[in-house]
Design goal:
It is built from six helices and five strands, in the order H-E-E-H-H-H-E-H-H-E-E. By secondary structure, the protein is of the alpha+beta class. The strands form two sheets. A three-stranded antiparallel sheet has the order 3-5-4. A two-stranded antiparallel sheet has the order 1-2.
């Protein structure tokens, strides 16, 4: 596959956390949700990502804040004990994640210098 294990494993863990695959006994098994994702158009894929993101950090905290800037989200995560972003480039990584996943999926929009979590039914 010409992919280093260091590059592949974060993808595997992410897809597991989002519910698209399960991992067990050395196997990666695609879930019904993962199959639905693969068979769907871009609009449905974004919906499936959005539904999954709302259940994982940093998006759980973003939803609780409703409106935030990256620094506010960063400190809210620290207060909750989430230490995934404490490296020197942690705040930059957090901003990339919010943009590339939250904004892309339509869960979050930009409003001036702030991010706003959209109101979706069931969230």
């Amino acid at each position: 596959m010409e992919v280093d294990l260091d590059d592949l494993m974060p993808i595997v863990y992410l897809t597991n956390n989002l519910g698209f695959v399960t991992i067990g006994k050395g196997d990666i098994i695609i879930t019904d949700k993962g199959i639905e994702f693969l068979k769907s158009n871009i609009r449905k894929r974004k919906e499936l990502i959005r539904e999954s993101l709302i259940k994982v950090e940093p998006f759980v905290t973003a939803k609780e804040l409703r409106e935030f800037d990256i620094e506010t989200l960063y400190f809210a995560l620290l207060r909750k004990g989430v230490k995934d972003y404490t490296s020197p480039e942690g705040m930059q990584l957090l901003e990339i994640i919010i943009n590339e996943w939250g904004v892309y999926s339509g869960l979050i929009t930009r409003k001036g210098g702030k991010y706003v979590v959209k109101d979706y039914q069931g969230f």
